[in-house]
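Can anyone check this?
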Amino acid sequence: MTTPSSNTQSNAQGSFGAMLQQARKTKQVSLEDAAAELFILKRHLQALENENFADLPQAAFARGFAINYAKFLGLDPVKIANSFDAAYPIDLKSRSTNNIESPLRPMGTLQRDTHNRIRFNPLLIIAVIGVIILAIFLFRMVSNASKENNEQPVTSSEDISALEQAQGAAIDTDANGVGASGSALNLGGDASMAPATLDVKLTDAAVVTITDATGSSLIAGSQNAGNYQLSGMPPFNVQIDNINNVSLMLNQEAVALDSYATGTQASFELAP
């Protein structure tokens, strides 16, 4: 005769996993739809509902997933977070803490699926976007030149080369060569594709987890008091367990953590 697993027993007692599963079914949302909406892997959502902690990433990440899932389903995120903390195995929590070799690990990566997934080089994407912007700029430049030639004759003394036109057509660039729109050519490029800087200041110990758009972990786990300077591709996924001990600046601009917080905890996406 088989005995029910600890996960089944926990769900039967109304644990956070059972609450998540019941709320999802009541809302008539599939795991696939929830995963697509939250940008969280389906297997991680399934592990949360089953309270299968071994299949989840580090405690800080898993806790953030549970909070985001609760908000999506209309549950109390603080109640879910507290239930998650109470149910999380002590041995896994200590193992997760021991895996953090230093307070700041900019080169770490989130645990993620490697099957059927295409990896993109961020620098290659930026280069492709730059080529597209340059092509659009040259096309507009040639079109404008053609219109001017049709409207009135241009004397030889006014002729300029295509290179000179390209050099003189950059719009409103500042001293750093960046236009008001955030791109070097000011043609409406996506400023979020450019790297951004984060300045994190801790007045006391706190659990801070930040990942960028490429999946790189910029900082993860319990951190000591101090100043941390990070850089990565926005948008950033930010999770903080106690905002009273943390202040955050994005590209030298202060971020109002209170507007993202539930109690003293905050879990949100941040972009310039």
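Reply from J.R.: I decoded it. Residues 1-13, 101-115, 154-158, 169-189 have pLDDT under 50 and may be disordered.
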